[in-house]
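hey
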């Protein structure tokens, strides 16, 4: 059965979570978290995503974010995670 498409409402807060594969750690040292947050800031500004809050755990991320447009959320978070995986 296919996954239900994500509903994104521009201008409304969304809670986003992202876990490592098989719940593996994605952050190993504090510098990893700093790099991730720097990438998130860059991509959020680039794609129009306002970050209201975040929680970076060792194996997953929680974000509360407000997208400016329907594709802002997917593009900003997707690009952030793509770039972070290249870093790791």
């Amino acid at each position: 059965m296919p996954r239900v498409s994500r509903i994104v409402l521009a201008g409304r807060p969304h809670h986003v979570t992202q876990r490592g594969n098989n719940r593996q750690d994605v952050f190993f040292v504090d510098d990893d978290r700093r790099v991730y947050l720097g990438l998130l800031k860059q991509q959020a500004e680039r794609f129009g995503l306002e970050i209201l809050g975040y929680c970076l755990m060792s194996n997953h991320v929680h974000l509360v974010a407000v997208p400016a447009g329907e594709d802002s959320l997917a593009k900003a978070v997707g690009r952030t995670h793509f770039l972070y995986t290249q870093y790791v």
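The chain has one domain: 14-87. The helical segments are 30-47, 72-87.
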